[in-house]
Amino acid sequence: MSAPKIIIIDYGFGNLFSLTNAFRFLGIEPIVTSSISNIKTADALVLPGVGAFDDGMMGLKKKNLVKPILDFADSEKNLLGICLGMQFLFDYSEEFGKHEGLSLISGAVKRIPDPKQNKNYKIPNIGWSELNKSKHLKSWKNTVLSSSKEGVEMYFVHSYVALPENKKNILASINYGSNIITAVVQKNNITGLQFHPEKSGPEGLKILKQWVIQIST
Amino acid sequence: MNTTFKKIRIIPRLDVKGSNVIKGVHLECLKIVGNPQDMATRYYNEGADEIICMDIVASLYGRKNLLNIISEAAKNIFIPLTAGGGIKSIKDIKNILRAGADKVAINTYAVKNPDFIPKAAKAFGSQCIVGSIEAKLIEPGKWEAFTDNGREKTGLDVIKWAQRLEKLGAGELLITSVDKEGTTKGYDLELMNKITQAVKIPIIACGGAGSPKDFYNTATLGIDAIAASHVFHYQKHNVKEIKKYLKNKKINVRT
């Protein structure tokens, strides 16, 4: 079968080069665009992002991308949010005041509580952490993590954490000092990764590849 | 595994001049050691956690060859890449990120225009802005910040400048000991310890690695990341060996 048409949404935030490069490595040429008509024709959407929540949402709004993304999510085609892009999936974030997100998954985004117990754990969390399977879940079968082993290490850069209302939306989390931080969320066709799979070495690429396989089947 | 400490990142650093990776002692007496793309790829395959790539003559001559180097180096590596050298504007940062870097390291221009750091942090997020400091011991327990590979004095006290950079919005600090750089005699532990105590943002220690033990001694300070070039460039030890050594000594590293 032909390669799926993957669109990376370009709204001025995020390292699009790395993400494009990672998909290319997997044999897929993604389209980087902010064109609404183009988004409608995609098989799957990637919502990337780095930086502050409010600035990012403003970026989406300025390009009139909020409705097209919500419509796309309704269509039951696959949507992947990465880092800030994952945080957008929730109802609101408390970064620099309360700001509304896309409300595709119920829950809030809040600052990582001070990991008091050990000053070695700083905020922002910059670095590699091990993914643990959520206790609400039997296995990672049929998810983006189905080819990953528990304890696999991913690269994180963030100061805020997503708190889904329904814990069953959490596939994986990390331990960060005394905190348990949401790392992977899924609700039907919508998946979110707090870490950067495109920057997490061969294991990160494996997760992206699994997502591509999901789209194609 | 020891989970009370965060995983320490091991970061090979490539100093480039023209199209070559070079290496010197105290940031001088430079010798060519390879090409950036091959070396970045080799370190990625060895299990490096990140790569730092610095154009060391950019701020001396205002050259702009860093973009080409970054876009070549970034092609085959899927780990974070920090680039630095000659950054003077928001546009410079945009171009470097577009070429494939994830973070930028800023030294000279931050010293001349401290107000640039908050502007850059606002535009790209603090996580993207690495404050780079070249430190020289000037009297016992006191270091001065230098620019242009340890050639130009700034009159700034390293500890105070580090704290100022944190306040201005830098997300990480790259601390290079000019005294130790290229000597393979070990990191400036006193300096790294003082910096770690003085600021809350992640610290990348750089300059002086010669043996696995040097990495260990630095790791025990509670530092976040350790950069090295000489030991890796001359293949005295590869990244995998260093990590294995640290892991055996109960230091938490990515496998």
UniProtKB/TrEMBL annotation, chain A:
Keyword check for Cell division? no
Which species is the source of this protein? Candidatus Yanofskybacteria bacterium RIFCSPHIGHO2_01_FULL_39_8b
Where is the protein found, in the record's own terms?
Cytoplasm
Name any GO cellular component annotation: cytoplasm
Which Pfam family, giving just one, matches this sequence? Answer: GATase
On subunit structure and binding partners, the annotation says:
Heterodimer of HisH and HisF.
Role noted for this protein: IGPS catalyzes the conversion of PRFAR and glutamine to IGP, AICAR and glutamate. The HisH subunit catalyzes the hydrolysis of glutamine to glutamate and ammonia as part of the synthesis of IGP and AICAR. The resulting ammonia molecule is channeled to the active site of HisF.
Is Transport among this UniProt entry's keywords?
no
In the UniProt record, the gene name given for this protein reads hisH
This protein's UniProt keywords? Amino-acid biosynthesis, Cytoplasm, Glutamine amidotransferase, Histidine biosynthesis, Hydrolase, Lyase, Transferase
Protein name as catalogued = Imidazole glycerol phosphate synthase subunit HisH
- The record's EC number reads 4.3.2.10, 3.5.1.2
Name the pathway: Amino-acid biosynthesis; L-histidine biosynthesis; L-histidine from 5-phospho-alpha-D-ribose 1-diphosphate: step 5/9
Annotated GO biological process: L-histidine biosynthetic process
Could you tell me what reaction this enzyme catalyses?
5-[(5-phospho-1-deoxy-D-ribulos-1-ylimino)methylamino]-1-(5-phospho-beta-D-ribosyl)imidazole-4-carboxamide + L-glutamine = D-erythro-1-(imidazol-4-yl)glycerol 3-phosphate + 5-amino-1-(5-phospho-beta-D-ribosyl)imidazole-4-carboxamide + L-glutamate + H(+); L-glutamine + H2O = L-glutamate + NH4(+)
Q: List, alphabetically, the InterPro entries matched.
A: Class_I_gatase-like, GATASE, Imidazole-glycPsynth_HisH
Q: Where is the Glutamine amidotransferase domain?
A: 8-214
What does UniProt list as catalytic?
C83 (nucleophile), H196, E198
A Gene Ontology molecular function term for this protein is: lyase activity
Automatic annotation (TrEMBL), chain B:
The family database entries (CDD domains) matched by this protein are listed as: HisF
**Substrates-to-products reaction catalysed:** 5-[(5-phospho-1-deoxy-D-ribulos-1-ylimino)methylamino]-1-(5-phospho-beta-D-ribosyl)imidazole-4-carboxamide + L-glutamine = D-erythro-1-(imidazol-4-yl)glycerol 3-phosphate + 5-amino-1-(5-phospho-beta-D-ribosyl)imidazole-4-carboxamide + L-glutamate + H(+)
**Signal peptide feature range:** none
- Look up the EC number in the record and give it: 4.3.2.10
Record's keyword terms, sorted:
Amino-acid biosynthesis, Histidine biosynthesis, Lyase
Protein's pathway: Amino-acid biosynthesis; L-histidine biosynthesis; L-histidine from 5-phospho-alpha-D-ribose 1-diphosphate: step 5/9
Pfam families registered for this protein in UniProt: His_biosynth
- Per its database record, what is this protein's job? IGPS catalyzes the conversion of PRFAR and glutamine to IGP, AICAR and glutamate. The HisF subunit catalyzes the cyclization activity that produces IGP and AICAR from PRFAR using the ammonia provided by the HisH subunit.
* UniProt family annotation: Belongs to the HisA/HisF family.
According to the record's subunit comment, the protein's assembly and interactions are: Heterodimer of HisH and HisF.
Name the chain's protein: imidazole glycerol-phosphate synthase
Q: Which organism is it from?
A: Candidatus Yanofskybacteria bacterium RIFCSPHIGHO2_01_FULL_39_8b
